[in-house]
Amino acid sequence: NCQLKTTANPDRENCSLHNITIALTDMGTPQRTTQRSFFITIADQNDNTPAFASASFAASVAEESA
Fold first, then answer.
1. Which domains does the chain have, with CATH numbers?
2. Rounded mean pLDDT of 40-60?
């Protein structure tokens, strides 16, 4: 088992696709090395706080419209 950790939160708007290459070397004699590359796609997240154009709104409905 292993974990891949980032030093900062990924920003999908800046870069949504990352190409990661991991190389492993054993401690045997002779040493053997292998590497694998893969892509990580960052999923979109609604990270924008809801906002209204105005602090209050006013509306009226005609009495006979209901």
1. 1-44 (2.60.40.60)
2. 85
